[in-house]
TrEMBL record:
It is an enzyme of class 3 (hydrolase). It holds the Pfam family GTP_CH_N. The lineage of its organism: Bacteria, Pseudomonadati, Pseudomonadota, Betaproteobacteria, Burkholderiales. Keywords: GTP-binding, Hydrolase, Nucleotide-binding. GO terms for molecular function: GTP cyclohydrolase II activity. Residues 233-372 form the GTP cyclohydrolase II domain. Signal peptide: none annotated. Residues 10-196 form the GTP cyclohydrolase N-terminal domain. It comes from Caenimonas terrae. Residues 405-417 have a biased composition (Basic and acidic residues). Its EC number is 3.5.4.25. This is GTP cyclohydrolase II.
Length: 417
């Protein structure tokens, strides 16, 4: 019996222009109509005007859902009642092609500003969503009980719930602008992105006419305490923290670092700031383990604790570099974009000791008043190694910078044998 060979299935390549129908994007243009919508649809290929697709890293799960037969390829999002709960912008920074290069300033309002294109059949998805929430944290309840915070029913309830506006943002990269931020050529950036993702997006090297890339990485979340529009008013006191994800500490309370204590301290500062008539902001970026990922991070923990002499601050960065090849991959160069999206021109109180964050924010033209360090009482015993190492490396501290001898003193807990 002859073996039946299945007919080869047609694969739709993305590497060549499919011609007619794609709307141009003019990054930084004065109006949304001139800027044009970001169309990363996988259905009507001829409408695509970007490289990659929506939902950041979750685009891979969407592919799985299609592969499993759970999701129709042709599904179009019904955007009824999904519009933002609070108006953000537009601000002058939105139409400055150099100020914002890693998110779509019009991403929250596509249903409104691109209503005509949506009606014409273009599949335009929001890359930003704005909603409201109550957040309840044990540290905030403890601050209420100890009298550091007072309930006012407006920003903080008697039960310890803080009222916030929260914003989810997916990355949208304007490649010429991203290349400029990193001081490399756009051609080099495209080539390295192509090669280092194992050739995942051929358009990076074949379609130089497409300048916008939706990278498969995590995005960010904003928590705003007070009125979002006050963020853009430099006469209103702004308390802000830009925080990079640390699942181990932020969620699970692991005590090897100061991430959660600093985060909850910032939330306490934001609530107090809002109650003084100001506004508070926590910008949370999905850059787990200095953007090295959690596997690398845990390998480093082991290397630190097993090294000769134990876990000390003088070898803190060296151990990371041994495993990862670099000390840090967060590259704060793109971080200020979200601050510009919010219209921020001045941060009165920055709840961070990081010199890299400080330099990135001020370097992008935003003024910073006071820097607020984490109170010593909030630093877990096992995290003293990290704190000393960071202070010695240039992190802001109102106290003394530890010298070489001091860096040998704090010892991290040993692994159980
Ligand atoms: Zn941490």
């Amino acid at each position: 019996m002859p073996v039946e060979v299945p007919a080869p299935r047609h694969i739709r390549l993305t590497s060549h222009s499919s011609g007619y129908g794609a709307l141009p994007i003019q990054w930084g243009a004065a109006t949304p109509a001139e800027r044009g919508p970001v169309v990363g649809t996988t259905t009507t290929r001829m409408h695509r005007n970007v490289i990659g697709t929506h939902s950041g890293s979750y685009s891979v799960y969407r592919a799985l859902a299609v592969a499993a037969g759970a999701l129709s390829r042709d599904h179009k999002a019904d955007l009824t009642n999904t519009s933002p709960t609070d108006v953000i912008g537009p601000y002058p920074q939105w139409t400055d092609a150099g100020k914002i290069v890693s998110l779509d300033p019009w991403g929250a309002t596509v249903a409104e500003v691109f209503a005509g294109e949506l009606a014409a059949g273009y599949d335009i998805r929001p890359t930003i969503a704005v909603t409201q929430a109550h957040v309840i944290l044990p540290e905030v309840i403890e601050a209420l009980q100890s009298g550091r915070l007072q309930a006012d029913g407006k920003f903080l309830t008697a039960g310890g719930a803080a009222m916030v506006t929260k914003v989810a943002i997916e990355p949208v990269w304007y490649l010429p602008g991203v290349a400029r931020r990193f001081g490399c050529s756009e051609a080099d950036l495209r080539r390295v992105l192509f090669e280092e993702t194992g050739g995942m997006y051929p358009e990076l090297v074949t379609r130089s006419d497409l300048e916008v890339f939706l990278p498969p990485i995590g995005g960010q979340t904003l928590y705003i305490f007070g009125k979002p529009r006050d963020l853009a008013d430099p006469s209103v006191e702004l308390t802000a923290r830009v925080h990079d994800e640390c699942n181990g500490s932020d969620v699970f309370g692991s005590d090897i670092c100061t991430c959660r204590p600093y985060l909850t301290h910032a939330i306490e500062e934001c609530i107090q700031g809002a109650q003084r008539g100001g506004v508070g902001l926590v910008a949370y970026s999905r850059k787990e383990g200095r953007a090295l990922g959690e596997v690398t991070k845990f390998l480093v923990y082991n290397a630190r604790k097993r090294q000769v002499g134990g876990d000390t601050a003088d070898n803190y960065f060296a151990r990371t570099e041994c495993v990862a090849g670099v000390q840090d991959m967060r590259f704060q160069e793109l971080m200020p974009d979200v601050l510009h999206w919010l219209g921020i021109t001045k941060i009165h109180r920055l709840v961070s000791m990081s010199n890299m964050k400080f330099d990135a924010i001020t370097g992008s033209g935003i003024e910073i008043g006071t820097r607020v360090n984490i109170p010593d009482a909030l630093i877990p015993e096992d995290a003293k190694v990290e704190m000393d190492a960071k202070k010695a490396a240039g992190y802001f501290t109102p106290g003394p910078v530890p010298d070489a001898d001091e860096l040998k003193k704090a010892k991290g807990r040993e692994l159980k044998s």
